[in-house]
Specification:
The protein is built from two helices and six strands, in the order βββαβαββ. Belongs to the RutC family.
Length: 126
């Protein structure tokens, strides 16, 4: 059985998908980009600010499923320029404890939705 997870504290989907789906004890999130959920505006000032908005959006989705970053077991990070990796990693890493950080891959891609620089999705368990 699956349960659709939604929150107004993260950007509404801009296509035929949901913010997250809970199946049993496993949460699958859709990718989050740096959209301000209140205004719908992109936050693209610099890569650290953009990444922080992405992580705050993800935090809201996790919270809507009664979870936190401690529940995350896998992250996927898609970036438009691998030269931004270290700055993205600093912000991303600030949301996790090194002793229980999730598995992760980071992939440079040709293009992301709305031409953003970073998109992150996660899998979490209760």
């Amino acid at each position: 059985m699956k349960k659709i997870i939604t929150t107004t504290n993260a950007p509404a989907p801009i296509g035929p998908y949901n913010q997250a789906v809970l199946s049993g004890n496993t949460l699958y999130t859709s990718g989050q980009i740096a959209l301000n959920p209140k205004t719908g505006e992109l936050i693209l000032g610099d890569i650290k600010t953009e990444t922080k908005q992405v992580m705050e959006n993800m935090k809201a989705v996790l919270k809507a499923a009664n979870m936190t970053f401690d529940n995350v077991i896998k992250s996927s990070i898609f970036i438009s320029d691998m030269n931004n990796f270290s700055e993205i990693n600093v912000i991303y890493g600030s949301y996790f404890d090194d002793t229980n950080a999730p598995a992760r891959e980071t992939v440079e891609v040709a293009r992301l939705p709305k031409n953003v620089n970073v998109e992150i999705s996660m899998i979490a368990i209760k």
